[in-house]
């Protein structure tokens, strides 16, 4: 008799909790690692995560602990879903408990400040495991909709296609449809840059600029993402798929998107500090826009939209001034 697949999910925010549900619905035994004892207690006693997904009942095969060693014991997959800028420090604590067969899975959509490393590179750096044991999951995956078991699709990517297929099987449910890929770079970049474009679209929405503006920003944002991706060795076709266009459209059009909501508040005239104060969860693009711009400069790629977002978010540039500057850039051919 084959044993059920064991998964440890590190992070009890809305996406970590929702993905734990997906894994459980796909037949895995899931242990959620929580930083706070009261969260683990709530999951184990009430079958809910009241802080992040109130009112949603978790499957019986999801249990929680604050003990990383316990969570990782016998795990086939260790799913990492913490704010991207905290990954390095957290993973250093968890790495000693990793077992040799465990595949590390990143659900994080960010780029590390300072090093400009993608999350899979940070994982490799900290744990010293080979790249064929590191996978990423990306796509149009707004946590609340998935927790409500509404249909969604995603890409699971790993350099080793057989590992991607194992992960695909471990998270395939009637409502969650994963596709495999070997383009880890493209999947990660699509996820990280779309948060920055989500901020730009949110700012434009907050300013009341309309749907033509939104369509233009999404399209030019995708062009920027592809330019950077190609310079970094990604497959350009990845960006027309779920981890590229799919994720970008969901983020730029949904009030459930944290980055879009954050941008909308800035566009309405709130300051950065005011916006941070009303935002309950991490909007990854706020920090990642700086590291994405750093990546672009390292690779000699022009990313004017990303520069504009950095100007508004971190340099205090008024959104109206930034839009004027963006619109007055020299005209060029679309394929430029």
TrEMBL record:
Pathway: Membrane lipid metabolism; glycerophospholipid metabolism. PANTHER family: GLYCEROL-3-PHOSPHATE DEHYDROGENASE, GLYCEROL-3-PHOSPHATE DEHYDROGENASE [NAD(+)] 2, CHLOROPLASTIC. This is Glycerol-3-phosphate dehydrogenase [NAD(P)+]. It catalyses: sn-glycerol 3-phosphate + NAD(+) = dihydroxyacetone phosphate + NADH + H(+); sn-glycerol 3-phosphate + NADP(+) = dihydroxyacetone phosphate + NADPH + H(+). Catalyzes the reduction of the glycolytic intermediate dihydroxyacetone phosphate (DHAP) to sn-glycerol 3-phosphate (G3P), the key precursor for phospholipid synthesis. The lineage of its organism: Bacteria, Bacillati, Actinomycetota, Actinomycetes, Kitasatosporales. It is found in: Cytoplasm. Sn-glycerol 3-phosphate binds at residues 109, 139, 194, 247, 257-259. The active site is at 194 (proton acceptor). Residues 6-163 form the Glycerol-3-phosphate dehydrogenase NAD-dependent N-terminal domain. One of its GO terms (molecular function) is glycerol-3-phosphate dehydrogenase [NAD(P)+] activity. Its main location: cytoplasm. It comes from the Bacteria. The keyword Flavoprotein does not apply. InterPro entries: G3P_DH_NAD-dep (IPR006168), G3P_DH_NAD-dep_C (IPR006109), G3P_DH_NAD-dep_N (IPR011128). NADPH binds at residues 14-15, 35-36, 52, 109, 143, 258, 284. Keywords: Cytoplasm, Lipid biosynthesis, Lipid metabolism, NAD, NADP, Nucleotide-binding, Oxidoreductase, Phospholipid biosynthesis, Phospholipid metabolism. Residues 183-323 form the Glycerol-3-phosphate dehydrogenase NAD-dependent C-terminal domain. Belongs to the NAD-dependent glycerol-3-phosphate dehydrogenase family. Its EC number is 1.1.1.94. The keyword Nuclease does not apply.
